[in-house]
Amino acid sequence: MAELEFPHLFLNTVPNSQQYTNPTGGGSKFQLPDRPNRIQHADYVRNALDKIWDESFTLKEQRKAVSLPARTGTYVEFESAAGFELKFESLETRRSGIRLLNVRAHENPNGSKTQRATIFVPHGKEKILADKVRRYRDEDTPKDQPKNKPLVESVENLRIALLHSFWNDDVGLIPPVDAPHACEIWLRTPTKEGEAASIVVFREVCEALNITLRDGHISFPERVVVLIEANSQQLTDLISSTDNLAEFRRAKETADFWVGMENAQQAEWVQNLAARLSVDAGTKTSACVIDTGANNGHPLLAPLLAEADCESVDTDWGTNDEDGHGTSMCGNVAFGDNLGHWLQTDTAISLPYKLESVKLIPKSGFKEDQDLNGYRTSQAVTRAEISNPEFTRAICMAITSTDGRDRGRPSSWSGMIDALAAGVDDEQEARRLFILSAGNVRNASDWANYPDSNVTSDIHDPGQAWNALTVGAVTFKDQITNADIANIYTPIATAGQLSPYSTTSMMWDSKWPNKPDIVLEGGNAAVDGTNFTTQLEDLSLLSLNHKPQLANFTGNYATSAASALATEQAARLHAQYPNAWPETIRGLMVHSAQWTQQLWNQFSDPGNSHKANRERLLRACGYGIPSVERAMSSASNSLAMIVQGEIQPFQEKKKNDFKANDMHFYALPWPKEALNDLPLDTMVTIDVTLSYFIEPGPGEIGWRDKYRYRSHGLDFNLKKPTESLDEFVTRLNKAAREDDDTDYGGSGVDWQIGEKKGRTRGSIHRDWVEMTAAEAAEAGVVGVFPRSGWWKERPYLGKGDSKARYSLIIAIRTPKTDVDIYTPVAIEIEQQIQV
User: Where is the Peptidase S8/S53 domain (predicted)?
Assistant: First the structure.
């Protein structure tokens, strides 16, 4: 490849905006179990409802008799037949106060699966459900089908809701009756204005039940999350006492990784480098490390991390690092994996960004008196922004939960990351770039099962956040130079493979994002002849010790170290392109990533298609290893164009009925002549990345249709060389009419990943296509179009006409290094700017 030496080209092109046409009809058929006796099934459901109302009334009277708080309605749990789903959307009647609270998948002892949904029915509204059953029993539609058939016939069982009806976590994590644990309580809040009142009422109930409610809460559309200390009996009492519950989850215990110290290095090396080290005086870019604090008294941090830029979410903790993890993270954020090299040079080193540190936890594994993790994370971000409000920052957080039990499901923590990234509830609508570690395969004994242990170990919370750049670990460290142990231990992974520490999303449901997004060096582990595994300094990254009086250097490893390296790259990109949005920086890093052949060999199956294997790679290691050179610059034969745009995904066509609104089409400044000058058989790659931030809507209510987690979706496609612009618009319009995440207008474009093989998960999408130079010359139009989300499907929340930002990156690459496709495009863009 030619030397990467030219800046990427940012386009000021105004897109050609086209509105969708929205014909009616379509949709998939809802499958129902066989109900041969309509009257018998209706009577069964009606009798079960009557029993539930009797139980609820009796419970209410019993609690009132002993002056205990009592709810003013009934929680009901519905269950589908095995192998079928509930028509749970029809259970809700908002105007009457009947609300759908959560939807959960349930696996029975025999292996069959059912779906369960919990609703709240206010006292006095019981007849609404009864009338739905009555109409099913006695009335027909014009097509001679029972009224409300999908709803009633989808119900197999129903009962008054108990603790398990609200528990959206592993049932083994329900606190025992004699041991309170921290639990997340997800409260339903019909309106933003009613949120404060809901918390006040809930606090009064907790006081009456002697339940500890901790300070702080997290807000989402129709949900607010609080943290309590409770045992199972107290959780049951809550269900009997209050009306606004939606779901319960066990609070996560945050943990990070013990960092081993290496022998002290000669202090002269440190002093020599410190004397050559500085930060660019005019920089407005920072790398903010949210961790265990940082000891900026270390000679190599003192020039980069000012005392005023050290903060803590709890002033009682101070800002210094008593654990070591935060300081080692700062070391790799500052120096990457090049500290050893820089120590041995004599040149001056000036970083284009400065460091910030916010202490989120006092030490690894901290859990005592723990607040909501998402709430504390938002506090940490706020403290950094108050200190340097004018700075653009890359936010690094390698603090995760101790496990991956969410399996891709949004949590309060990941949801808060998504909300902070998207600028939700921020007066300035400030977007933020979060770089998160994926979490690690924690048990050393599991490393012996590499790479199967990576496949079965899930990304840890909050690494499933859609808007964050989640970083896994690869390794190139497979040499043990310590002669004393070189004949005892062998590196587990070979160079270019996934690190033994790295977790994956390979076991996740297909609806969740591909995580990690990228992988970077995270070190290796070693095994001996007895299958005993261990960490070695030889296989770790060199970083800084938090106690320089004892040792200046230490080892860092795993996805923590990998996320630090990613933050270094992101901060350099921010400094290089100060006007680039956080969405763009994330997009550039994903856009520059590539899989090693070792990763391909490791996770591809010879029996699968190439697209199926690429889907496995996305789940194991994202888009691969980002190249800071490719992310930073274009080349004469490798051109990247960037559009930062805003689109209104939906528009109200009639009252409370929103439809897809705009498609954006970009007729790009295209190196058509240069491409036509190439030999006819020259293959050219067109690589497209679309990065945007969604507004989260967590809370387990089915995660589909109007209850989607995402506020909106976006996708892209490329004009085929042989079709006209009108035909291209028609093709995308057809895809838009479906709006069911199955048709992406991909016909005729042979994308390498493919719309149906994982490209469109999450909120960053990348794909590439290879074609001849002559074909590429005719393919210079890209379309961006919206997909459904809760902005559209829940109009009562008032967000249906909201606008959304996106960053679109389009690259053209030719294998010939002596061709110049960059200059003609740069000249055309300059002429457009002058006009």
Answer: 282-624
Phi, psi of 422 (to 5 degrees): -85, -5
Q: Which residues of 750-782 are buried (b: 16+ CB within 10 A; e: fewer)?
A: ebbbbbebbbbbbbbbbbbbebbbbbbbbbbbb
587 is a domain residue: no
710-737 pLDDT tens trace: 999 999 999 999 988 888 888 887 766 6
Per DSSP, 632 falls in state: H
Asked if 118 and 165 count as a contact pair (C-beta separation under 8 A), the reply is yes
The residue out of 511, 544, 565 marking a domain boundary is 565
Q: In Å, how far from its chain's centre is CA 624?
A: 17
* Contact by Cβ (8 Å): 437, 411: no
Both 269 and 318 in one domain: the answer is yes
For 115, how many CA atoms within 13 A lie in the half-sphere containing its CB?
A: 18
Average pLDDT over residues 50-73: 92
Q: Which residues make Cβ contacts (< 8 Å) with residue 804, sequence separation at least 6?
A: 646, 647, 648, 649, 692, 711, 712, 714, 786
Alpha carbon distance 446, 503 (integer Å): 12
- The sign of the torsion formed by the CA atoms of 377, 378, 379, 385 equals positive
Domain final residue, candidates 153, 181, 202: 153
Q: Is residue 611 part of a domain?
A: no
What is the mean pLDDT of the segment spanning 457-482?
94
CA distances from 739 to 26, 88, 408, 455, 750 (A): 10, 20, 23, 32, 21
CA-angle at 268, arms to 266 and 271, nearest 5°: 125
Whether 678 and 541 share a structural domain: no
Q: Give yes or no: residues 817 and 688 share one domain.
A: yes
Q: In one letter, which amino acid is 604?
A: S
- Helix (H/G/I), strand (E/B), else coil: 235: helix
Banded model confidence at residue 256, pLDDT cuts 50, 70, 90: very low
Same-domain check for residues 230 and 376: no
Mean of all residue pLDDT scores within the chain: 88
Q: State how many domains the chain has.
A: 4
- Kindly report the CATH number assigned to the domain that includes residue 519: 3.40.50
Domain that holds residue 284: 255-565
Statement to judge: residues 416 and 519 lie in one domain: yes
28 dihedral zone (left: phi>0; alpha: psi -120 to 50; beta) = beta
| Measured CA distances, 346 to 269, 312, 351, 528 (Å) | 11, 36, 16, 40
Determine, yes or no, domain membership for 613: no
Let me know whether 139 and 274 are in one domain: no
Q: How many CB atoms lie within 10 A of CB 250?
A: 18
Of 21-25, 106-110, 653-657, the least confident? 21-25
Domain CATH code at residue 244: 3.30.70.60
Give the pLDDT confidence of 347-401 residue by residue, as tens digits: 899 999 999 999 999 887 776 555 688 999 999 999 999 999 999 999 999 999 9
Q: Is 532 exposed, middle or buried (0-12, 13-18, 19+ CB in 10 A)?
A: middle
Tell me which residue of 94, 95, 99 sits closest to 119, measured CA to CA: 99
My answer on whether 681 and 803 are in the same domain is: yes
608 in a structural domain: no
Do 219 and 358 lie in one domain? The reply is: no
Give the Cβ contact number of residue 648 at 10 Å. 16
My answer on whether omega of the bond before 352 falls inside 30° of 0, hence cis, is: no
